[in-house]
UniProtKB/TrEMBL annotation:
It comes from Acidilutibacter cellobiosedens. It is a peripheral membrane protein. GO terms for cellular component: bacterial-type flagellum; plasma membrane. The gene is fliJ. One of its GO terms (biological process) is bacterial-type flagellum organization. This is Flagellar FliJ protein. Belongs to the FliJ family. Signal peptide: none annotated. It is found in: Cell membrane. Pfam families: FliJ. Residues 66-114 form a coiled coil. Keywords: Bacterial flagellum biogenesis, Bacterial flagellum protein export, Cell membrane, Cell projection, Chemotaxis, Cilium, Coiled coil, Flagellum, Membrane, Protein transport, Transport. NCBIfam families: flagell_FliJ. InterPro entries: Flag_assembly_chemotaxis_eff (IPR053716), Flagell_FliJ (IPR012823).
């Protein structure tokens, strides 16, 4: 009996490799997004701390220092806006990568199902072949005795 051979094994292996690469890329982008979100949250926290500090010291602070606080808070606001854009762009990249991963997984799954179906067909045909051999053997023995 010949061994089961799936003619699209190379394609299936390629699809598996593509899926693995897409998973790695998705994981990397997700990690980068988390890092950028942490930076953004750090800016938000720092801005709130500075606002609180400015409000607490408003009575004891000179006008020059108040202007510095305001300028610093404005610069921080600009950094936050830039970082928000970075986060939005990273989210877009992550979503795109996720879609690519889902598509690669679907393509791989198609070939896996095809392989399963072909293997079941192979097993069925093997069983039919074995049954035929057994039937021939039984009928040969019956004819030889009779």
């Amino acid at each position: 009996m010949e061994k089961f051979n799936f003619k699209f094994d190379k394609v299936l292996n390629y699809k598996s490799t593509v899926e693995t690469v897409k998973k790695a890329n998705y994981g990397k982008l997700k990690e980068e997004l988390n890092k950028e979100e942490d930076i953004l949250n750090g800016y938000y926290d720092h801005k709130e701390d500075m606002k609180t500090k400015k409000n607490e010291e408003v009575a004891n602070t000179k006008i020059g220092n108040m202007q510095l606080y305001s300028k610093y808070l404005n610069d921080l606001k600009n950094k936050i806006e830039k970082q928000e854009n970075v986060v939005v762009n990273k989210r877009i990249d992550v979503d795109k990568s996720k879609e690519e991963l889902v598509e690669a997984s679907k393509e791989k799954k198609i070939f896996e199902r095809l392989k399963e179906n072909k293997h079941e067909e192979y097993l069925y045909l093997e069983k039919l072949s074995e049954d035929k051999i057994v039937d021939n053997l039984v009928s040969y023995r019956s004819n030889a005795r009779g």
